[in-house]
Specification:
Blueprint lengths: L1 H30 L11 E10 L2 E10 L2 E7 L5 E2 L15
Antiparallel strand pairs: 1-2, 2-3, 2-4
């Protein structure tokens, strides 16, 4: 009987700890910026080919919302097109 009481006390403590952890996670999710950090949702990056004449290179473009942050060339991505090649893409803002 004594052993059963010790096991029950430990089980109750483990259950209370697990419930407390989940309660804290739910409160952080609801009242904070969220566990995943909603603050960084506006930060994003993508790759884009940028051409000058017949030479195109890929760049990693970084943005914060609509604001341009920076651009880094992807090494080894340079492509040379044949004479008469025309880039039909419409130029727009990077972000």
């Amino acid at each position: 009987m004594f052993l059963f009481m010790i096991i029950m006390k430990k089980a109750v403590l483990v259950i209370l700890f697990v419930l407390g952890f989940f309660a804290a996670a739910v409160l952080a999710w609801e009242f904070g910026d969220g566990i995943t950090g909603r603050v960084i949702l506006d930060d994003y990056s993508y790759t884009r080919a940028i051409c000058e004449g017949l030479v195109c290179s890929d760049y990693v473009v970084s943005c914060d919302g609509d604001e341009f942050v920076g651009m880094v060339i992807v090494e080894g991505s340079e492509i040379w097109h044949d004479e008469g090649w025309v880039d039909f893409r419409v130029e727009g803002s990077l972000c």
